[in-house]
Amino acid sequence: MNPIQAPTLEMNFLLQQVFDAGNVWQKLPAIAELLDLETASAILEEGSRFCSEQIQPLNQRGDAQGVGFDGIQVTTPAGYPEVFRQYAAGGWVGLCGEPEFGGMGMPKMLGVLLDEMGYSASNAFTLYGALTAGAALCIHAHGSEALKALYLPKLYSGEWAGAMDMTEPQAGSDLRNIATRAEPQADGSYRINGSKMFITGGDHDLTSNVIHLVLAKIQGSDGISLFLVPKFKVNAAGDIGDANGVTVGAIEHKMGLKGSATCVMNYDDAEGYLIGRANRGLICMFTMMNYERLSIGIQGLGSAQCAYQMATAYAKERLQGLAAGGSPTGAKADPLVVHGDVRRMLMSIRALTEAGRALAMMTGMQLDGAKYAATESEKQQASKFAALLTPVAKAFLSDRGFDACVTAQQVFGGHGYISETGIEQLVRDTRIAQIYEGTNGIQAIDFLGRKLAGDNLATVTEFFGLLQQQQQSCAPIFVKEQQQLQQLQQQFLDVIAAVNQQKHDNPALINAVAVDALDAFGYLLYGHFWLMMADRALKATELPAAFVSGKQQLCHYYFAKQLPKVAMHLAAVAAGDDTVMQPVSDWF
Amino acid sequence: MNPIQAPTLEMNFLLQQVFDAGNVWQKLPAIAELLDLETASAILEEGSRFCSEQIQPLNQRGDAQGVGFDGIQVTTPAGYPEVFRQYAAGGWVGLCGEPEFGGMGMPKMLGVLLDEMGYSASNAFTLYGALTAGAALCIHAHGSEALKALYLPKLYSGEWAGAMDMTEPQAGSDLRNIATRAEPQADGSYRINGSKMFITGGDHDLTSNVIHLVLAKIQGSDGISLFLVPKFKVNAAGDIGDANGVTVGAIEHKMGLKGSATCVMNYDDAEGYLIGRANRGLICMFTMMNYERLSIGIQGLGSAQCAYQMATAYAKERLQGLAAGGSPTGAKADPLVVHGDVRRMLMSIRALTEAGRALAMMTGMQLDGAKYAATESEKQQASKFAALLTPVAKAFLSDRGFDACVTAQQVFGGHGYISETGIEQLVRDTRIAQIYEGTNGIQAIDFLGRKLAGDNLATVTEFFGLLQQQQQSCAPIFVKEQQQLQQLQQQFLDVIAAVNQQKHDNPALINAVAVDALDAFGYLLYGHFWLMMADRALKATELPAAFVSGKQQLCHYYFAKQLPKVAMHLAAVAAGDDTVMQPVSDWF
C-alpha cells in the first residue's frame, strides 16, 4: 500500500477560503493569540508527515497481529507503544487541550483535520489518542480542581490514556439500567463494583496508566453518576501506586479494528472519584460523548479519504478494458480511470468526502465558538449549532465513510476482496463507526427528536438562515444552485414541520422516520458546502487552475447526481410511520 | 446462532400463487412429467432440512478455520468433505441436471429456491456445488458427446467437482488479454500451459477430481477457446489416472468466504479437451457464467434471508429502551422490535428480500422457458427475457443482499461487530458477490449497453408489456399502485430512450450511467413484484390471515419507502455523463 498523503491543500483551502478561519480565529480571544493561518498550515504539514511516516506503517500489520491478552495485561500490536510515545511527545494528544494544564489550546476546527489524518493512517491506532483527549475534555469540563490538576497534564502529554466505560450487557443504547454500583467512602472517594463491556482502549501497553470514566449508580440511588477510576492509584504528587481493582475480563474478537482493544472491564472495590454532581453523570459523560461522536464521524471521514487515495491510485495504475470509443493511446488496455463507471465511483467518494470535511470543520467551528466566543450570545448560538450538527457529523460522516470504503473496494475488483490490498481492512475497520458511540439510528433520533422537534425547528430554521446568507454571497453564475438549495431547505422545513405537529399524537413517528430525516439534511447540507467550495475556489487568487476547475466539476456532479437524494429521503419521511409501525411484533 | 429455517411458506406462495408454477410446468413437456406443486413442496422441505441440519453448522467454524494449503493439496474446513458427500448423494448437485446423464431434470425456477437455502446456510460451502452444476451445464451445452458421457454423470453425482478458470493477473474483467496457451496434439487433445488466479474451488478435498473449464488461446491464434482440463486424467471407463499437470500455486487470504478455496492455478503441459468450437470459448464460457451470475445473485439473496432471520430473532429477544409512548407491558426495557427505526430496518430487508426471491424465480422461469418451452418462438422470447434479467439478478440481488447484511448488522448494535454473533461474517462473506462473476458495474453495462440499447429497447418494452398485462389482472383496490408503476415504466423507457439516442455520438455515456439505470430498473421491478404478491395473497384462499395482511403491509411499505428510489436513479441517468467524464484522468 502506498503511503497516504493528507490532503493539506484541500484543508488549507477550506480553512482559508471557505471558512475564513483567519478572521474567525481573530474573534476568539484565546485562539487569536496562539494561531494564525500560517501556523495552522505548518501544523497540518507536520501532522501529515507524522501520520504517513509513523502511524500508517502500523496499520496493516496491526490488523494481522491484533491485540493480545494474557489474562492480565492487554498488549497492542508491534510498534504501537513506540509510535504512541512519539505521537504523545509531539503534543498531538493535547492539541486542543487546555494550555493551563499543558495542552496546546488549538481550536477544534483545526483539530478535526488532524483527527482525519490520524484515522486515514490507522483507525485502530488513532482511537487511543482520541479517547484520551475526550476523557481530558470531560474532566476539564466537570472535574474538581484537584482532579484536573492531577490528571489533565498526564492525559494531555499522553503519559496516561483515557477510556469511557458505559455499556453493560443489559445496558447499551439505554443506559438507565446499568448495574455498576458506587459506595461512598469516608474520605470522599467511592468504592466501585461491577462490570462493563465493549470498552475501547480499556487496557493496553501504550501508557503507564489508564484513566477510566465510569458510569455507576451511587448506593441507594437510581440516578447515574460519573467516576474517574484509574487503573493504578495515583498519589497527590501524581506518582503511580498500587493497582486499583480494575481488571480486564476478556477482549472481544471483532470484524475489524483489531489493533484496538475492546475490553470487558471488572471493578472490584476500585477506588473512584466523583466527576461533577451526583446523579448527573450522563450529562457529564455527554461532554465526552459529543466529543467522541464528532471524532467517530471523522473516523468515517478519514477512512473515506484513505479509500479515495487507494482507489484512485489503483484506477490509474491498473490496466483493464479499453476506453469507450477506443483507447486514446492505442494500448491493448487502458487504465481503469478512463471508464465512466469507475469515474462515477471515484467522483461519488470524492464529492462526499470533501463536503464531509467541511461538515467536520463547521462542527468544530461551532464547538470553538461555544467555548471561546467573546460574547455569551455568540457562545449560545454556536452551542446550539454544535448540538444540531453533532449527530449529523457522527452519523452522516460514518455512513458516507463506510459507503466510500465499500465503493473504493469495488474499484479494486477481485483484488479488493484480498487482504493484501488493504482496502478490505478499511471496510472492516470503518464499519464500527456507524455503530459505536450511539448507533447512527440513535443519532438520527437525537437529531430529529431533540435537535429539530425539541425546539419546534427554531434552531434549524436559524441555521438555514445562516446558510442562505452565505449562499447569497455567491457569484451570480450560481443562482440556479442557490435557488435549488433554498427550495430544498423550505421543503425540508415543511416536511419536518408536519412531523413536529404530529409528534404528540403519534409518539412513534420520530423514531420511525429519523434516519431519513438526517440523511435528507446531510445531503442538503453537502449541497450547501459544494456551492460554497465552488464559489470560493473561483474567487481565490492563488489556487492552481486544475484545483479551481475541479471544484466546479465536483459541484456540478454533486448537484446532478447526489442532491436528488434529498427529495427521496424527504418522501420517505413524508410517508410517515404507518407502514412501519402497523405490523405486530410477532409478525416479523 | 439459531438454525436458519428456509422460508418454505413464502416459497410455496410464490410458486403457487404468484408464478402459477403448476400451470407453467404443465406447458413444459420435459418438466410436466417429472414435477407437480406437491412434489416441489416436498423437495423444498427436504432441502430446507438438509441446509439447517447439515450445512449451516459448518458455517461459522468454517470461517474460523478457513481452508488449508500444504503446498500441494487444499483442505476444506472440518466437516466439509462429509457433508458434501451427503449433499451430493442427496442429488442436490444434479438437481437441475440432465436426466440422461443422471441429473434430476428439475426446473431452474425450483432450483433457485434450493440455491437460496444453501447460501443462507453457508455462502462458502454452497459455492462448491454451484460451480460444479455450472460446469456441468456448460459441458452439456457445448461439449462433445464423449465429454458429456465421461464427465456429466460424475459431476451431477458430485463425485467430481467443477471450476471455472478465467482470470489471469493481467486479464480480469477484460479477458481478451489472457496468456494461457493451448497446443494441439496429434490425438485431438491440447497441451495447456499458463496460469490463472482467483479460481474459486480450484482445488479442495471434497471430491476425487476437479474438472477445470479453462480459457486459453490456441497456439497461433488470438481467439479464445474453452478447454476441459481435469486435475487427474480420466480413462475411457471413467477411472481416475495420473495427475494432469494442474497444480495450485497459492491460495488467497480474503475478507471472507474463508471456507471457500480461492486458488492460483498453474498448468504445466496439462492435457485439455476443446469444448465447443475453437476461438468460440467466450460464448461457451458465458453459458456457465450466466448460470453462475444468477447463482451469485442468489448468494446475495440467501444471505439477505439469513440476515433477516438473525436480525429479527435478535430484535425480538434483546431488551433495550422503551417503546415510544411507554412500554406496553410496563417493563424496564422493551424488545428492540418495538422501535420504529429497528422496524424500518427489518421492513427494508424483508421487502427487498421477498421481492428479490421473486426476481430470482422469474429469471429461473425464463431460463426454463428458453430450454423447455414447446415452441421455438416461446423459447426465443424466454431466452431474451432471461438475458435481460440475468445481469439484474446478479447485480441487484447481490447489492441488496449486501445492504441487507449491513442493515441486519446494525440491528445488532455493538454485538453486530463481534465475531461470535455471526452477522459480521455474513457481511464479509456476501461482499464478494458484488465483485466476482463480473463486477456489478460490468453487469450494469451489459444490461444497459447490450440488453436495453442493444436492440433499441425492443426487449425491455416487450417485457414491460408482459408486466403491465399481469398488473392489469390485479384487484381494483390496487389501481393506484398500477398507475404508479405504469407511469414509472414509461418514465424509465423515456429516460433510457434518450440514452439510446445518444449512444453513438457519445460512446462513454452508457458506461457512466449504467449502474443507475440498472438500479432504477431493479426498484421498479420490485414494485411490480410487490403489487403481484399483495394481490395474489389477497386472492388466495388457504393462506394464514397474518401472511395475507403482511403482504399488504409490505406492499404499502415498499411503495411508500422504496419505490421513490426509481425516480432518484432515473434523475442520475438523465443527468448524463458530463460531470463524470469531464475531469482529466490525472485530476483524480
UniProtKB/TrEMBL annotation, chains A, B:
<dbReference type="Pfam" id="PF02770">
    <property type="entry name" value="Acyl-CoA_dh_M"/>
</dbReference>
<dbReference type="InterPro" id="IPR046373">
    <property type="entry name" value="Acyl-CoA_Oxase/DH_mid-dom_sf"/>
</dbReference>
<dbReference type="InterPro" id="IPR025878">
    <property type="entry name" value="Acyl-CoA_dh-like_C_dom"/>
</dbReference>
<dbReference type="Pfam" id="PF02771">
    <property type="entry name" value="Acyl-CoA_dh_N"/>
</dbReference>
<keyword id="KW-0560">Oxidoreductase</keyword>
<protein>
    <submittedName>
        <fullName>Acyl-CoA dehydrogenase</fullName>
    </submittedName>
</protein>
<dbReference type="InterPro" id="IPR036250">
    <property type="entry name" value="AcylCo_DH-like_C"/>
</dbReference>
<dbReference type="InterPro" id="IPR009075">
    <property type="entry name" value="AcylCo_DH/oxidase_C"/>
</dbReference>
<dbReference type="Pfam" id="PF12806">
    <property type="entry name" value="Acyl-CoA_dh_C"/>
</dbReference>
<keyword id="KW-0274">FAD</keyword>
<feature type="domain" description="Acyl-CoA dehydrogenase/oxidase C-terminal">
    <location>
        <begin position="279"/>
        <end position="444"/>
    </location>
</feature>
<dbReference type="InterPro" id="IPR009100">
    <property type="entry name" value="AcylCoA_DH/oxidase_NM_dom_sf"/>
</dbReference>
<dbReference type="InterPro" id="IPR006091">
    <property type="entry name" value="Acyl-CoA_Oxase/DH_mid-dom"/>
</dbReference>
<dbReference type="InterPro" id="IPR052166">
    <property type="entry name" value="Diverse_Acyl-CoA_DH"/>
</dbReference>
<comment type="similarity">
    <text>Belongs to the acyl-CoA dehydrogenase family.</text>
</comment>
<feature type="domain" description="Acetyl-CoA dehydrogenase-like C-terminal">
    <location>
        <begin position="477"/>
        <end position="582"/>
    </location>
</feature>
<feature type="domain" description="Acyl-CoA oxidase/dehydrogenase middle">
    <location>
        <begin position="163"/>
        <end position="269"/>
    </location>
</feature>
<dbReference type="InterPro" id="IPR037069">
    <property type="entry name" value="AcylCoA_DH/ox_N_sf"/>
</dbReference>
<feature type="domain" description="Acyl-CoA dehydrogenase/oxidase N-terminal">
    <location>
        <begin position="40"/>
        <end position="159"/>
    </location>
</feature>
<dbReference type="InterPro" id="IPR013786">
    <property type="entry name" value="AcylCoA_DH/ox_N"/>
</dbReference>
<keyword id="KW-0285">Flavoprotein</keyword>
<dbReference type="Pfam" id="PF00441">
    <property type="entry name" value="Acyl-CoA_dh_1"/>
</dbReference>
